[in-house]
Amino acid sequence: MADHRAQDKLAFLLSLVPYLVDHDRVSVAEVAAHFGVPQSQIRDAVRLIGVSGIPGETAQYQHGDLFDINWDDFELNDQIVLTNRVAIDDSPRFSAREAAALIAGLQYLSALPEHADRAAVASLMAKLSRGASAVPSSLTVEATATDGTLALIRESVSTGVQIEFCYRSAQGEAQSRRVDPLRIESFDADWYLRGWDHLRQGVRTFRLDRISEPVITTEPITFRAQDVTLPETLFEGSPEDLLVTIDVVPSAAPLLADYIPAGAVTTEIGGLFRTTIRVSHYHGLKRLLASMSGMATVVEPAEARTAVAEWAAAGAARYR
């Protein structure tokens, strides 16, 4: 009978220790409810864990070879906090810098609507902090002008209502839009909202820095991300798009993959790739070529060459 009791106690401890490791701070009452045992049994087990461990290199139980607990918190507040873990911590750990970088990335992701379950993200950040080889540096993600819009989009998703805003197109036209937010994506340095546009009755892409006066409506969301098949590419063509022929260095050609229409012919001329790209307006073409300085040249039509040349000349004139 004694052997069975010892085996049961060992099995319980083997289950309890990983549970405590996985929780940064937990009350005795919570642990007892989780395992379905009396609170007194949890307290006895915690005291036993406090004198358990493995012998280190000296083959003796030194302080670092034993589990340690915040005894003041345990005795005064009935809270269990492991301050030193042994044996199960032999697996490789993130360095403090690696953990800090991951935590900063998670902070940024928690702002996006498709990651609206921020409790899970917060739990993962806490685990990264505890599991690092040293205390991670305190990092925060710099706020941007679009953070307010992101916050409203996140609220729209979490509350299940549509968002309405004024959208200024690249041509400078402003129009009111009412949208079911589906996904936030980045392209180069810009952020875009992909959503179901109730005005156009279809999926549309909106650049966040062109959104103004966003407000949460009282209309329930009609479509969520799992209800709509989003195109693989961020930008979809339309019959009004302009076709432009360009020469581009081979190493930069992959950067234009989203702009090259299906069936476009690419030829090699003088060590450069000549291909056709699709743009919605010449203003977008100017921005695209500015990001590929020295790597791409407009061949035709003449209107496109003129628009880009005049824009580049105006920019250069500001330095005189």
From TrEMBL:
Q: Name one GO cellular component term.
A: proteasome complex
- Top-level lineage group: Bacteria
Ranges where the WYL domain occurs: 149-213
Annotated Pfam families: HTH_PafC (PF19187), WCX (PF25583), WYL (PF13280)
Q: Which residues form the PafC HTH domain?
A: 8-130
Does the keyword Protein biosynthesis feature in the UniProt annotation?
no
Instruction: Report whether Transmembrane helix shows up as a keyword of the record.
Output: no
Q: Which InterPro entries match?
A: CBASS_pafABC_assoc_protein, PafC-like, PafC_HTH, WCX_dom, WYL_dom
Protein name stated in the entry: Proteasome accessory factor C
Please report the organism this UniProt entry assigns to the protein.
Glaciihabitans tibetensis
